[in-house]
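hi! just following up on the protien thing from before. the input was this:
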Amino acid sequence: LEDRFVVFQQKKYAIPGETLSPVGGFIDAGESPLTAAKREVLEELGLGSKRTIRTIRENVQGYNNGRSGDPSKTLDRETVAKIITEKANPPVRDKFGLLDGQPRQIPTIEYDADWIYLGKYRTAANRGGGFLYSYLLKNAVPLIPGGGTINYVGTGDGESQEILYMSEVEVMKALSEGKFQEVKWAATFALAMLHLKVGMPACCGTND
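and the predicted 3d structure came back as:
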């Protein structure tokens, strides 16, 4: 749906009642943060970018060298996930030895204008907790049958969740009312809204 945010409404073990949330997950060994984000959005929502559709066409026999065909009507989640992960750039580390979340700016599979990097943030500074890598996917499209619809059954941790399609006004209202009850989720949506409404640039400069 145009001009809508795809959001989960769900119950989590440690949160009272229901909460709104974005897609989230862990970075697998050998993945960059961006590749992990692409894989998680595919697994949980069946969605991705138009650039990823083109990559799929270029790497699956029968799609006319990337110029035609609709893999979202025929391919399964496992096949698409394999293309996303195996064709991706290897992870890069910054000067501190930490995973770098910025996309490469040279022409590669990672150069995708619809994936906006919102930054890397320590989640528990006093206790040495992990890092949050936040992204915004704009202009999302289905990558596999049923992707992005309420009938799509994604992978997850087994907790009950419902897909909602929220307007910008509804997301802002939900943020102001504390409906995103986990701080990383609230921060990610707030950063996304700053980018969309105020023109905050993608995080942290560019990488070559």
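The chain has a mean pLDDT of 88.
Residues 102 and 205 are 8 Å apart (CA to CA).
cheers
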